[in-house]
Automatic annotation (TrEMBL):
Annotated coiled-coil segments of the chain: none
PANTHER family membership: TESTIS DEVELOPMENT PROTEIN PRTD, TESTIS-EXPRESSED PROTEIN 30
Transmembrane feature ranges: none
Residue stretches making up the KANL3/Tex30 alpha/beta hydrolase-like domain: 3-194
Superkingdom of source: Bacteria
Extent of the signal sequence: none
Protein name: KANL3/Tex30 alpha/beta hydrolase-like domain-containing protein
Gene3D superfamilies cross-referenced by the UniProt entry: alpha/beta hydrolase (3.40.50.1820)
Amino acid sequence: MSQATLILAHGAGAPMDSEFMQGMAERLAARGVSVLRFEFPYMAARRAGGGKRPPNPQAQLLDCWRDVYRQVRGMVEGPLAIGGKSMGGRMASLLVDELGADALVCLGYPFYAAGKPEKPRVAHLAGLQARSLIVQGERDALGNRETVSGYSLAPGITLEWLAAADHDLKPLKASGLTHAQHLQQAAERVAAFLRN
């Protein structure tokens, strides 16, 4: 079976080569997953010396995703999954069915904005057709285990909970677990999910 490829988008605040993104790409590559990263226009502009900019409007983010997917689909054979960290994963989730990607992978999904659990961003997740994996920290400020358990999610979505972890999958020190262990566990789950 040909190797799976995952296009991984960054979150709202950190670029594609942040410590988290770099570490996840390396861990996945070590497990046989090809990872491609890209930057949304606002982040590319920041890198070019444009100062700190907020994310582009959602329509622009989605168009950027469509362009990247089209380019990559033409270059790689075998299964092609899309996903990302936080905002990057949420944008991918809005497009995965439209694009016909083979799977969706979200690392720290922003189920709601910080401090606004009463305004969930989950309506589209109830009807999602794509096979999906969401790796989430149990105490994520944008979607903790207790709140998310009340949502109606499509049957093809698998939720993998990391004990005592936050939005960056970092566990509480008191848990006795380490960030490296959690990133390792996340990478193992993603690789196994993409192999199936």
